[in-house]
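Hypothesis: this fold can be encoded by more than one sequence.
Test: take the structure tokens below, design a sequence, compare later.
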């Protein structure tokens, strides 16, 4: 996974709150990014078939985009569970998101297959930290 997952999660969360299409400004605010950066990402997501982007209107998730957002949320929830339950670290949401984003698709899919759904079903999409300060990296994770 990568930051694409975070954009898809933001769009998915905003859609669940009842607005569609999702405006650039809403995602920019949710992710603490500039509107120009979000517009560029929307274009790339559209090219990848993950969203349907209409300039000046916004985006909607395609079925592939929605599926990827759900998988990202599941992987994040599994990593968060591991930090909290196995490692006994409580304040780990941002770090868990970075770890989840660093996983490749095969590892992410495998995690969702082998970890029981009860582990991650308690994490709401609204619990997923979307905005992480721009200068944070995966160093030390």
């Amino acid at each position: 996974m990568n930051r694409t997952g975070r954009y898809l999660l933001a769009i998915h969360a905003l859609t669940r709150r009842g607005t569609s299409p999702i405006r650039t400004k809403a995602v920019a605010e949710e992710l603490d990014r500039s509107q120009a950066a979000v517009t560029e990402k929307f274009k790339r997501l559209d090219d990848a078939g993950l969203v349907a982007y209409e300039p000046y209107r916004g985006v909607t998730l395609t079925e592939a985009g929605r599926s990827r957002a759900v998988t990202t949320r599941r992987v994040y929830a599994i990593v968060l569970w591991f930090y909290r339950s196995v490692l006994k670290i409580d304040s780990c949401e941002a770090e868990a998101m970075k770890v989840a984003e660093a996983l490749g698709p095969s590892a992410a899919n495998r995690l969702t297959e082998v970890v029981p759904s009860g582990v991650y079903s308690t994490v709401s999409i609204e619990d997923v930290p979307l905005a992480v300060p721009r200068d944070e990296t995966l160093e030390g994770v």
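Residues 72-126 form one domain. The helical segments are 3-16, 24-31, 35-47, 63-86, 93-102, 105-114, 117-120.
Hypothesis status: open.
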